[in-house]
Design brief:
Strand content: 25-35%
Distance between the termini: 57 Å
Protein name: Aminoethylphosphonate catabolism associated LysR family transcriptional regulator
Low-confidence stretches: none
Helix content: 40-55%
Structural class: alpha/beta
InterPro entries: LysR_HTH_N, LysR_subst-bd, WH-like_DNA-bd_sf, WH_DNA-bd_sf
Oligomer: single chain
Number of strands: 12
Radius of gyration: 23 Å
CATH class of the largest domain: Alpha Beta
Shape: elongated
CATH topology of the largest domain: D-Maltodextrin-Binding Protein, domain 2
Family: Belongs to the LysR transcriptional regulatory family.
GO molecular function, one term: transcription cis-regulatory region binding
Number of helices: 9
Domain HTH lysR-type: 3-60
Mean pLDDT: 88
Length: 292
C-alpha cells in the first residue's frame, strides 16, 4: 500500500504545531480537511497517531516514532526546495537557531542580517541538553552550545574557549577577594542552573573531583534568575566569564585550583552542513571569532 503524502504532511503539521487548529492555520487549510487527512492515514493502517484529550493533542508512542521520520523527510524536502529556489544566493530563507546563551549568537545573527537582508530568523534559548535535542529532532537548523558532542550525526565546529567564574552579592563576605580557591565552596550555599545545563554539569563534576560539598544548592531555570538569586543573598553563583555583566550588586571571583575551561561549539546535523543557510551561518560565526 502506497502511503499518502498528503496524510503524512498533515500528520507532520499537527505533530509540529501540537494542535489541529494551529496546523490548519499554518497550512492554510480548514481544520476539518486536515483532520480528515490524518484520520484517513490512521484508518488506512489501523493505527492511532494522536491522543485527543479535550483540546489537547498528544502524539502516541507510534506517532512519536513517525514524527522522527517525517522530520527527516520534510527537512530533506526543505533542503531540495532551498537549492532549487535559489536560496543558495541567500536572497531569502529562514534559519532556525537554538542556543544555550544569546551572548554570542545575537552578534552572528546581526551580521548575517546585515549581509543578507532577505533572511529571517527564529531563536530558541535553552540549556545545553535541550539545544542538542533540538538539532537531533530537526527542530533547529544550527545551534551554539557549550556541550562537546562526539556523535557522527552531528557536525561540530569549535569556536572558542571560555571559563566558569563565581560571583557573589557585593555585601557577601567573599566579595572582598578577587579570586577564591575551589575549596572555598565547602559549606557554602551555591546557586546553579537546572540539570541539563553544561555550567552545572562541569561545576558539579569539579566539586566532586575535589571532594567538596556545598551546604545548600538553589536550582533556578535561567541565567537571569541565577543573578537575581545571588544578588538577593542566596549564595555563590556560577556563570561563564564571557556572560558576566558588571553590576554594582555583584562581584566577580576567579576560581583557582580546578580546570573550569569550557568550549563553545557551532553544530548542525551532519547531512545539513552544506545547506546554503547553514554553511553561511558557520562562516559568519567563524568570521566573528576571528575578529574578536
Amino acid at each position: 500500500m502506497a502511503i499518502s503524502y498528503s496524510g503524512l504532511a498533515a500528520f507532520h503539521a499537527v505533530a509540529e504545531a501540537e494542535s489541529f487548529t494551529g496546523a490548519a492555520r499554518a497550512r492554510h487549510v480548514s481544520q476539518p480537511t486536515l483532520s480528515a487527512q490524518v484520520r484517513s492515514l490512521e484508518e488506512s493502517y489501523g493505527v492511532r497517531l494522536f491522543d485527543r484529550i479535550g483540546r489537547q493533542t498528544r502524539l502516541t508512542p507510534l506517532g512519536q516514532n513517525l514524527f522522527v521520520i517525517t522530520s527527516r523527510l520534510f527537512a530533506a524536502q526543505d533542503e531540495a526546495q532551498a537549492l532549487l529556489a535559489g536560496t543558495r544566493t541567500l536572497q531569502r530563507g529562514h534559519l532556525r537557531i537554538a542556543a544555550d546563551s544569546a551572548t554570542h549568537v545575537m552578534a552572528a545573527l546581526a551580521r548575517m542580517r546585515s549581509k543578507y537582508p532577505g533572511l529571517t530568523f527564529s531563536l530558541t534559548i535553552g540549556n545545553s541538553s535541550e539545544v542538542v535535542s533540538q538539532i537531533m529532532d530537526f527542530a533547529a537548523d544550527v545551534a551554539i552550545t557549550a556541550r562537546p558532542i562526539s556523535d557522527p550525526q552531528i557536525h561540530v565546529l569549535k569556536l572558542r574557549s571560555d571559563v566558569l567564574v563565581a560571583f557573589v552579592a557585593s555585601d557577601h563576605r567573599l566579595a572582598a577577594h578577587r579570586s577564591i580557591p575551589i575549596e572555598a565552596f565547602s559549606g557554602e550555599d551555591v546557586v546553579l542552573r537546572e540539570r541539563g545545563s553544561i555550567t552545572r554539569e562541569v561545576f558539579e563534576t569539579r566539586l566532586s573531583s575535589a571532594g567538596i560539598r556545598p551546604a545548600n544548592l538553589l536550582e533556578v531555570q535561567s541565567r537571569e534568575a541565577v543573578r537575581e538569586a545571588v544578588a538577593a543573598g542566596f549564595g555563590i553563583g556560577i556563570t561563564f566569564d564571557s556572560e558576566f555583566r558588571a553590576d554594582p550588586q555583584l562581584t566577580r571571583l576567579k576560581v583557582t585550583g580546578a580546570d573550569l575551561a569550557v568550549g563553545e561549539y557551532a553544530v548542525c546535523r551532519t547531512e545539513r552542513r552544506r545547506l546554503p543557510l547553514v554553511r553561511s551561518f558557520f562562516e559568519t560565526v567563524l568570521e566573528q571569532v576571528a575578529e574578536a
